[in-house]
Amino acid sequence: MNERSLLKDWIMESQNIVFFGGAGVSTESNIPDFRGVDGLYHQEYEYPPETIISHSFYRSKPKEFYRFYKNKMLFPDAKPNPAHLALAKLEEMGKLKAVITQNIDGLHQAAGSKSVLELHGSVRRNHCTRCMKFFSLEEMISSMGEDGIPRCTCGGMIKPDVVLYEESLDESVLSKSVAYISQADLLIIGGTSLTVYPAAGLIDYYRGSKMVLINKTVTPMDEKANLVISGSIGEVLHDAVGV
Fold first, then answer.
1. Is residue 110 part of a domain?
2. Is residue 71 part of a domain?
3. What domain range is 213 assigned to?
4. CA angle (20 as vertex; 121, 86 as ends), nearest 5
5. pTM to 2 decimals?
6. Which residues are annotated as a binding site?
7. Where does nicotinamide bind (predicted)?
8. Residues annotated in the binding site for nicotinamide, as ranges?
9. Is 120 assigned a catalytic role?
10. Does the residue 203 lie in any domain?
């Protein structure tokens, strides 16, 4: 039996599936991988991306932060791809209990997934740092002034609910992720290099015998996985779920 047929069988016989995904899930929606060729980490900017998308840079140079953020991290027209749709279908079938994602684009929810844990936040949630008023992605973009900084009517700066460098991950999201992964009978990991911590460390909590890794490149966890499939995450999940 080949790898894809085995994955399909495992999905059919499982009732507590958890999916853990990274940037590779969204590249098929034309959102660049942060570390891929021509991705965020290969752009020509005055400062390294790690510096620009840090909390201290956001505070000290908001104009430059938002110029980069708008140009390189916002893709309001992106649509869910077959991977997102397949996962939403699995949840609808009662098999998938949670999507744990490192992505900030909100495409899992756009595809119909309801149980989504966003480790690094979401560009679709934004709040005024002064009065805490909520702004959608579209409202945040339209509130950008001539200097490119989004501001509330109260004058406060609007900050995206995205975990920046130097900021901590949400403890409640982490603890829920640990609970889901530790109870899963099938853990599917896709589109992630498994090199970004603490997020990547979450898969160590899996206690089952069906850990599946779907990725286009080799990861540090390949040897620990029970099944490794090299290929397009959208294509593999589409075939396995039959969306």
1. yes
2. no
3. 1-31+79-120+169-243
4. 100
5. 0.93
6. 23, 27, 34-35, 102, 104-105, 120, 128, 131, 152, 154, 192-193, 215, 233
7. 34, 104-105
8. 34, 104-105
9. yes
10. yes
